[in-house]
Amino acid sequence: MAGSHDHVEEALPPGKSFADRVYLPAVMRGLKLTVQKFFGTVTDKHATVQYPEVGIYDASEAERAIGHPNPRYRGEHILVKDEQGREKCVACLLCMAACPALCIHIEPEPTPPEWGDRERRPKVFEIDMLRCIYCGYCEEACPCDAIRLTPKFYTPTTSRTERVYDKERLLENNPAAQIPQRPAK
Amino acid sequence: MTEFVLTPGMIGFAATILKALFVIGMALQIVPGCIYFERKIAAYVQHRIGPNRVNFTIGTLRYLMPESMRDVIPEGLARVKLIPGSLQPLADAIKLAFKEEVIPEKADKLLYNLGPMLTFIPVGTALCFLPFGATLIVPDANLFGIEIQRTVIEMSVSNVVPGMLMLLAVSSLGVYGIACGGWGSGSKYPLMAAVRAAAQMVSYEVPLGIAFLIALASVGSLDGQEIVRNQAETWHGFGWLVFRQPLAALIFLVAMFAENNRLPFDLPEAEPELVGGYHTEYTGLKFAIFFLGEYCAMILMCGLFTTLFLGGWSLGPIEPVEVFGSTIEPLITAEGGILNVLLSVAVFTVKMLSVLLLQLWIRWTLPRFRYDQLMDLGWKVLTPLALANLAITAILISKFPNFTFFA
Amino acid sequence: MSHALPVLGDVLERTFSAEVQAEIATLIKRYPEAKATLLPVLRIAEREFGSVDLGSMKLVAKTLDLSPAYVLGVVTFYFHFRRPTDGTFVIEVCRTLPCALRGSDAFAEGVAKKLGIEFGGTTDDGLFTIKNAECLAACDKAPVCHVNAYSWECLDLETFGKLVDDIRANPDGFDLTTGRKTPYPWRAAADPECERTQPEGELDPYYTAMTHEPVLAKRFFNDEAASYEAYVKDGGYVGLKKALKLKPEEVIQITKDSGLRGRGGAGFPCGMKWGFVPSVEKVPGPRYLLVNADESEPGTFKDIRFIEDDPHQILEGAVIGAYAIGSNDIYIYIRGEMRIGADRLEVAIEEAYKNGIFGENALGFGVRLDCTVHRGAGAYICGEETGLISSLEGKRGLPKLKPPFPAVEGVWGQPTIVNNVETLANLPHLFREGLEWYTAIGTPRVSKEVAPPRGRLGSQGPKVWCVSGHVNRPGVYDVPFGVSLRELIESDKFCGGVWGGRKLKGIVPGGSSMKILTNDEVDCHLCYDGVADAGSSIGSAAIFVFDETTCMVNALYNVLRFYDHESCGQCTPCREGAGWITKLVGRILHGHGTMDDLDTIDKLSDEACGKTICVLAEAWSWPATSYMHKYRSEFETYIKTGTSRFAGRLYEPLPSLSKSAKA
Amino acid sequence: MSETTTERLEVPFTIDGASYTALKGETVLEAALRNGYFIPHYCWHPSLSIAGNCRMCLVHTKPGPPKPQIACNTVVSEGMEVDASSEKTLTAREGILEFLLANHPLDCPICDQAGECDLQQYSFDHGRTTSKFSEIKTQRPRHDLGPRIRFNGNRCILCTRCVRFCDEVTGTGELTVVNRSDSAWIDVFPGVPLDNPLSGCTADLCPVGALLDSDWIHTTRVWLLRGTKSVCSGCATGCNVNVEAFDDSVKRMTPRENQPVNKWWMCDEGRDSHREATTDSRLNVARLDGQPVKHQDALEAALDLFSATPAAKIAYLTTGHATCEELHLLETITDGPGGVNYRPDGGAFETLDGFKLSADKNPNRAGVVAVLGDVDAGERVRKGIESGQIELVVVCDSQPGGANWDEGLVEALKGDVKAIVISLEDTWLAQTKQVAFPGLHAIEKDGTFVNQNGRLQRVRAAVSAPGDTRGELDVLQELGRSAGHFPRVLSAGGVFRRLAAASPDAFGGLTYRGLGAVGLPLAGAADQTPADKCQTYYNAGPVSRETRAQDEQTRVAVHRESPLGYGTVRGNV
């Protein structure tokens, strides 16, 4: 149990000196640190980017090595295309089943007969980005590598409907297409 | 023509209303500021920017100018922000005010609605007993045919003699609001938060009260003004209890954090464990009132700490007369004079805000305690220490009644 | 592997003429239900319309009151029907292992080259179609091909080229029967000169009763011997007469005592099998005796000799069997490829009808006894007892679930006995010469007490062996049980040793489904127990020999390809496993194998064995595992280098075949 | 099959050491399934002959040979020890599954069987995680076998259930296996498609996704479907069905087992019957003098009309599609004569195993007789209207396509007689008469039907009605309430209780809840099978479909009801 004495002892800071046990010097050190950080921020620079005025793909920001998203960052989705430029998705609805936020809505339809290589594709593929929690389960559930989460940071919009991405938008949702906007000088 | 006479009663009555408005007004003004600074400090400590969107710009000033002169301000300059994000608290307030009120289906309606009120009312009441400035003396005068009788106005909304005791009594009622809100929400997380809050506040009430007692005992008065004066008059103005009773001051400070549910003792609101704490199920104005009550409680406690341990409104060794010089009319600068009082209020506010700043500072520095650690600290460390301190103080007072260390 | 429906033409409107309808009506009378005549009627349709296309299928379905889909299913199960795209002359070249061992691969390539078409294709003039055939039962005379089901044997490309030219010169009047050759008449019997002395001081049970007089094969390779008169002159139908004097139970008992074991492959005691037929009180209704003349195990060519050269021997045995089990109907199920054999059987049956052996008052007993030849249509699995029953019933030749066993519930739900041709051919001799004479031949049973399956049932009676592959004198040998396998191969009195003076690499002792025996293991005695002790089985007594140059990967692929093609597709493990293992070995053969594949062969075989309705899964997993284990280093080398010593060829051909053959 | 065995002796035997009893002559698989012990299998089906070709049900038996035996063809002998879960049996099973999957494409994402596929289920339960197979898979064709069934050869495991169904149940024999070895597949004779009245059952029988109902494929996934145990309203057979819906629209109807009624089957016509509920010609809105109005307005007008007319002057007209409850209400609230319209007869079909597809296309003709007794086709109503004795007619027409009243009656109705119409379709009556309410289709309403053999079965609402439709039960009770017949509006069950009390001869002793999933026979009915004999141990569809249906976890996961009861998070997912 968490309340057992041993456990508590173990969780205490390792120091056993009086100063450690009084805890106040550590508090003071902590306060000193935060104050340093505080003034450091005031005088130096912020770790954040003025998004969306400054694009996160802005090269200059990347050079400064801050504000550039980690490639493993889970941002907006993209529907992957195959060699012929058609969606890879076969509308298996597994992402829909895996989605904990219920933000994916798919309606399958048979493929045109000339496709040949598969039988079904999505007629409607919608992701409600406002509901999405960017957990990446859809990506994991996808058996065809048809849906991916890109590092693309979401673009602010002024209406909710704009945040419901349809199939065409998801197919074109290339992170490289997110053009950086510099703040006007 | 009968001369209109302003009796001390009438003046006092009017002054009380004005003081009440002032206190509430101040509190309500400090809260948004506090929120803004809290966010800003948090951001800066974390190398972020913080709120910077909602604010006036220099360009806003154009709207105050005649149309022909608007071009005076160049476009570049017009974009410069005046205190970036400064209007964020206003935006928050508007948002909260217009948010839909949602009452959970399984909530106990009465308790649910009572919760925020019970949080705010005791704090508001307690603020009345806080001495926030030097005593104002309205001299006998005849202004524009109105006879004014000499009136002594204490700079606290209510100047009952055991004011500090009242304050202590009333401020501890705040926990009822939290308990009501937590229970009334009909949800398990608020309930757990409420239980935690109740236990925590009851626990820390003990060292807080004892530290309080030490301060009172050291001064020998329950009157707030008397406590401040005592500190100002001892040790050439340096007789602040923080120097005379440092341990008690520390205990009070720590207990104060716990009473206010502030980090590192914010277990009733621990987000990772309890979603939002006791106000999880609240939205809109009820949530705002909870929020307000919480911040007012912070202001109250900081004021109390200022009063008890930091010499209240007194400027320390400096006499206000020295500040203003003797050139100004004694009515204004002398003790009880209006400038003197204003200065003292300013001093009090600055001290109080400093303590408030400390609270914010601590919040972004220390991690949250575990609940058992919290209880250990309260009962096993602070309470015995406070008791010991009290005992020693009591013995010293009884043995050396005139020992200057205390008096 | 074709994975589309064979080209079956259009659904043309067709009708049978009145004569054909009458013919079909007569045919239907020979079977208890009309459905059973499906294969014969399809043959008639093939004859009438030149091929079995969708239109004729629909007509047949209408004639026999079946659903067209059913007929389609049956037709696509069998591979021997003529397709609408086939030319006038369908040339089927045997590519199965025993033939391949004697050069059929090179021959087939030459044929394709000569005709200028791929296998399965038809020449532009519509004259020739070449197809792969599965074992045509002339392994000793390889390379061999069938032209419109007439066998052309001991071919070389020169002869074949001449044949093609002759046909082209005179497509209408060409006599296809001229291709038949019997070049090795002496091979029918053991050399009468051969003397074997009992090894002194040794009590070898296998040699206690050796005889050198050919019994079963005595009248082979003699065109005059097939007639009824010749047969009676040689002592035919004497055994039958003797048997008829006994009660059926006594006949069964004598058969049991004789230790006659089924010669088809499993070696189940014949008398015991007859004994399983329940009494009429228990199961009323007719009993059926089916003669399994569907000899299609690669390497086996003994039954065709009985059928073509001595059909009355089979008929006599069949009548004895029918008498023993109380059957009034004998059906001889013969391979579709054995057209001449079927014709000769028909002739023999006709003679038997005339001489009162069959008919309404058969043998003067006042009971009806009928015998019908039923031609299959090219499916190896119909040689399996229950597959044969299914096929005879006019269905896809799918083996049936056991239980119920055929002896209790067989064809048309009635007690049925299925006996191999050679088994039945033993019976006339048994009853003519008596039990003592019979049991003196071969190796006696060791102990009556020990129960099957390892019960030392002994191997009694005369036996015919088919030897093919890399030996100097391949052929049919009537040698009693007990001779040493090595002696049979290497003795000058028999096969004359491995050809070209090469070393022996291995011998498959009982048809391609049996496990291979390496050079070290071939000292076993040729009898059921002796070969079993060596780790294989006598099977259908089809012995083929690999010389030292043989590539075992190639050989295994050839075997597996056959079984993949012939799996009926019913049971999951066999259907999928045969295809899988064939693809796998084929991959090794093409140089893309990995060492893991060898383990996979093992696991696959293990998982398929014993889990199917019939034993076809064993038939491909036994060779697979035994070839792989016994010649593992060869497989490993192949995988490592991507090819065999002989650049992927099955074996190194002899410089000249004619020189080494002691013809 | 053991059903034909006259002796019902019980034979003790054990499976994995646990004791069970089998009936004499029963196979191991049957006995195990009947005792609730599941042995995986594909090709075996209780209504079909034993093919024994899938080899999935391999078990070891003692006494028995050392090699495994197929449980579907091994008859239980006394004291037999069946080993169905030892290491060697499981290894054998794994091996079979690996073989099955060798040439089976791993296209579950686009396979509409996924989620109720036995191959998937068994692979999950018994299969290996990896396969040794690294060759190129065999390709087999994909085409339509008939108007309803699409065949995907690559997925076929050649269990031949479909072939045997067409041979042994429908007797039409359209299907066959063509070719042999691993290039075999199921096919039809060119030009003779699989087009028998029960062809949809082949898709149900198919344990994998080889045969699929082309009617609903590529529309949704099976795990999203929510089944409702109801009864088909297509004909008087009254097949027990699962009405499977997603997003509040019926995606398909699949049969449920009910031995005396429909065995395991249902006809293609019945499978399509839910489409009658989504036609354009449906009446979706209440009408007052032909104009669309709110339900409440129409109801007030109807109440005025109803209360202004003496009960004796009110007649009713109904159809063979009305539930027993509606019939009872009609009879109760009116005192005048009644008339019933029946749909004309359609095609009938009888399978070799005795499943009868009725020519009578009225699901509740027997119910009309049981509730209303002797009632004609509206002759008395016509006379009443013509003689002026009838002033108001309550028309309850839930027949898809609209009831086809007699010409004389139509003429009479076209006159001045007032009418309150509750109609499924937007008929001329609904458009021209005083008040019209939209009616419900059988997939939208609760109630009971009596099938041709006198079996009383429950219909359950599977989807909600379109628009503002309240349904017959509601409207009729509102009318009856205004006349003081009922104190309050009851559910279908409540009305049934009143019906049972009112007609004790036919419905005596029956309770709505007691009807359960398979219904109960009316007194004196031809079919007197008790409920516990209606279902065997074997379900109608693939084994995994039933598993899915019983899996409450799946249900909750799919529909995501808020644990605090705040409602469904998002209705259409």
Descriptive labels:
heterotetramer; A: about 180 residues; Alpha-Beta Plaits; three-stranded antiparallel beta sheet; two-stranded antiparallel sheet; 7 helices; about 15% strand; disordered N terminus; C: about 675 residues; alpha/beta; Arc Repressor Mutant, subunit A; Glutaredoxin; Rossmann fold; globular
What does this structure look like?
The complex is a heterotetramer of chains A (185), B (407), C (663) and D (573). With 185 residues, chain A is an alpha+beta fold. In chain A, 28% of the residues lie in helices and 13% in strands. Chain A folds into 2 domains: 18-64, no CATH class; 77-178, Alpha-Beta Plaits. Chain A is built from 7 helices and 5 strands. Chain A has a 3-stranded antiparallel beta sheet. Chain A has a two-stranded antiparallel ribbon with strand order 1-4. Chain B is globular. By secondary structure, chain B is mostly helical. Chain C is built from 25 helices and 16 strands. In chain C, the strands form 4 sheets. Chain C has a 5-stranded mixed beta sheet, sandwiched between helices. The radius of gyration of chain C is 24 Å and the shape is globular. Chain C starts with 17 loop residues before the first helix and ends with a helix. In chain D, the strands form 7 sheets. Chain D has a 7-stranded mixed beta sheet, sandwiched between helices. Helices cover 26% and strands 19% of the residues of chain D. By secondary structure, chain D is an alpha+beta fold.
Topology diagram in text:
The complex is a heterotetramer of chains A (185), B (407), C (663) and D (573).
Chain B: E1 4-6, H1 8-45, E2 56-57, H2 75-78, E3 81-82, H3 88-98, H4 109-127, E4 133-138, E5 141-143, E6 146-148, E7 151-155, H5 163-171, H6 174-184, H7 188-219, H8 224-233, H9 241-244, H10 246-259, H11 271-274, H12 284-309, H13 320-324, H14 330-333, H15 338-363, H16 371-399
Chain C: H1 18-29, H2 38-49, H3 54-64, H4 68-77, E1 89-94, H5 97-100, H6 104-115, E2 128-133, E3 145-147, E4 150-152, H7 157-169, H8 228-233, H9 238-244, H10 248-258, H11 270-275, E5 288-293, H12 303-309, H13 311-325, E6 329-334, H14 339-354, E7 359-362, E8 367-375, H15 385-392, E9 416-420, H16 421-433, H17 435-440, E10 442-443, E11 459-460, E12 464-469, E13 475-478, H18 485-490, E14 504-508, E15 517-518, H19 528-534, E16 542-547, H20 552-566, H21 572-589, H22 595-608, H23 616-630, H24 632-641, H25 657-660
Parallel strand pairs in C: 1-2, 5-6, 5-9, 6-8, 12-16
Antiparallel strand pairs in C: 1-3, 3-4, 7-8, 10-11, 12-13, 14-15, 14-16
Chain D: E1 10-15, E2 18-23, H1 28-34, E3 58-62, E4 69-70, E5 81-83, H2 87-102, H3 118-126, E6 142-144, E7 149-152, H4 161-169, E8 175-178, E9 185-188, H5 200-205, E10 211-213, E11 226-231, E12 240-246, E13 249-255, H6 259-262, H7 268-272, E14 286-288, E15 291-293, H8 295-308, E16 314-319, H9 324-333, E17 338-341, E18 349-350, E19 356-357, H10 365-372, H11 379-387, E20 392-397, H12 407-413, E21 418-423, H13 428-432, E22 435-438, E23 447-450, E24 455-459, H14 472-482, H15 492-502, H16 504-507, E25 520-521, H17 543-550, H18 552-559
Parallel strand pairs in D: 1-5, 16-17, 16-20, 20-21, 21-22
Antiparallel strand pairs in D: 1-2, 3-4, 3-5, 6-7, 7-10, 8-9, 11-12, 12-13, 14-15, 14-22, 18-19, 23-24, 24-25
